[in-house]
Amino acid sequence: MTTASSNKETFEYQAEMKQLLHLIIHSLYTHPEVFLRELISNASDASNKVRYLQMKNDTIIDRNKELKIKIESDEKEHRFSIEDSGIGMSRDDLINNIGTIASSGTLEFLKDAKKAKNDVGEMIGQFGVGFYSAFMVTDEIVVETRHADKDSVGLRWTSSGDGSYSIEEVKREERGTKISFKLKDEFKEYSTDFKIKDTIKKYSNFADFPIHVGKEKVNTIEPLWIKKAKDLKAEELKEFYKFVANDWEDPLDHLHLSLEGVGATFKALLFIPKRAPFELMRTQDHKTVQLYSNRIMIMEDCKDLLPEYLQFIRGVVDTADLSLNVSREMVQSSPVMQKIKTTLTNKILQWLDKMATKNTEKYAEFYKTFGKLFKYGVNSDFANKDKIVDLLRFETSQQKEGVLSSFKTYVSRMKEDQKEIYYLSGESRGQVESNPNMEYFKKHEIEVLYLIDPVDAFIIPSIPEYDKKPIKAVDKGDLDLKEDEKKGEKKDNELSKALIDLFKETLKDKTEDVRTSKRLVDSAVTLVASADGADKHTEHLMKMMGQDAPQSKRILEVNADHPVIRNLSKRYIANDKDPMLNKCILGLFESAQLIDDELVSKNDYVKRMMEIMEEATQ
Ligand code: ADP
Predict the structure, then answer these.
(1) What is the value of pTM for the model shown?
(2) Dist. CA 244–CA 239, nearest whole Å
(3) pLDDT for residue 426 is more than 80
């Protein structure tokens, strides 16, 4: 607060806010029409809030005033105004809602989006800064408002968006908000009815309240979800989606539901967005579905209608089973809501399943965008776990990069004598492909699922088997590697037990065990996790996330066929006290650690390698 004259107070914007305004104004020039969409959307939200208070029988002023949005313009003076009879704003509302950036980090996020050459103009509504888009088309905004509260006063907020705003008390009888300004020269067409109507048709046709331009009502207030599925037109579905989701892109897919006799009667029009909304990437605080009761919105964002892992769904759910004047708390705990949630979850999983079989490309697109969130369902929705597991997709060693397989298709390709399902988790396809533990599987062409999304490592422990086949990491110690087992036993004899014992003795504080390997082909040694530990990648991830997972000791597997091991064998027979044996065993062990990113001391390792090289080059 800087100055105060009579009842007018002037406030400075925070520095962040100034930058934000600058950024918005300079990003929007390609989409000046966005301001109209955002102001209508705010007017519509404000009207919804009042309607809700009316239903709850709260004491408010102008109780029976019609809820509508009125746009007026003056072509000669280039003036524009939009007025609603919604909830209005108190002094605190003005300061907190249009004097401050709603959520911290918004500025950074917008900057990044702009740097990445995203169309910031189109996205503006998703950032909760839509109001300011009006500064694109005008140099000064005047907001006159009065809150629905019976003790409220009329207020006028004025700002030229350059660093400060002022608030003063004014005489205003009616509830609601009027926003008015003079358009900049280059945007004067927004003072013509033609341009205004045209823009409303394009962006705001589905607003819940009548929009009047001059004397004419211009929007169709037609709840699409009431229509029969066969009467829904592709174009109007797209438009409707853009309106409810505040998205600028078409949806990936939609689902229309009209259900009776499932313990709840409801209609729903649901969408999967094409792109993850920015809120979803930034926080958990993203919007989901709107809840209506007999065509009247009772909650703008009803997270309780969907389990967390399906909260990428947008759209509308309308039920006749909730009375209009229930409180939000009661909505949340009502058995009707539980029923709807269960039914919706089932229907959405069926929808995804159908997409996965009928349109694999579309499903792959969905999976790429929302898979990370969706997969958590495996751990959280026990009732539907099997269905979700069937919807999981992975790259595999036998399929090209980018091609996704389900457990089901993997199993259908399993070799006759293969009893287990194999996977390897890691950071990337390249990394898992070159892992020594893959050698046996490559040689025998046994398919391995590549779990290269970090989330995979968290869900796989909850899926011990599929189709009665145990699911195992190829870097675990207890694999059923039939074919080479006999060979392995034979090698065990060949590779003197005494040498293995020397390995064990040398590494006794560092490993859980040392064994002859059945899975190595080209590498000399590898480290595997013990049968009861988590797989190695999972352990690394847990550690990265700061979880207290003690690193379990590894099992060192030795490839008896490898020239280095054979040489060591010979040296051991010649002289079992040869100091080189000890150095090589430690060096081999450390090189296996190095590959797994588990090497404790680079210095020790390099020193050891130098000693070995020195001897070799003598
Ligand atoms: P968003 O609408 O995404 O929150 P905005 O910058 O468009 O972001 O608006 C900020 C806030 O200002 C709104 O959330 C609302 O609280 C308030 N607001 C804006 N316009 C109105 C209006 N016409 N009536 C009441 N409140 C409003």
Answers:
(1) 0.71
(2) 9
(3) yes
